[in-house]
Design goal:
The chain is an all-alpha fold and 91 residues long. The chain is built from seven helices and no strands. The protein binds iron/sulfur cluster (2 copies).
Length: 91
């Protein structure tokens, strides 16, 4: 079972722990599309939290090479522009 599915069954505290761990693994800050605005707002983990509140120019997305992609069974990219994995799956 994907962690994403397992997470549905987790308590809010357990979910928060997984989110915090994934946030520490997130490599968005190294992405060419990552902006100063995002940095200032400490935005990361767009695959879970959805679109950035900043204006983002599509330069590249390094999500496919992020460990979280495999761990969570993610199948999309450009989460900061297009929305979270769930949103992009139409969930
Ligand atoms: S998949 Fe992308 S948005 Fe999600 S944690 Fe990794 S780098 Fe960040
Ligand atoms: S979600 Fe993708 S495009 Fe956006 S900052 Fe993270 S790695 Fe870059």
């Amino acid at each position: 079972m994907e962690i994403a599915q397992k997470m549905e069954k987790m308590s809010p505290d357990e979910k928060k722990q997984v989110m915090m761990k994934n946030r520490s693994i997130c490599i968005c800050a190294k992405c060419p599309s990552y902006t100063t605005c995002m940095k200032v707002k400490e935005e990361l983990l767009f695959c879970s939290t959805g679109k950035s509140t900043c204006t983002v120019e599509k330069k590249a997305c390094i999500c496919p090479s992020c460990p979280v992609t495999g761990m969570m069974g993610l199948s999309h990219a450009y989460y900061c522009i297009k929305g979270s994995e769930k949103e992009q799956r139409g969930m």
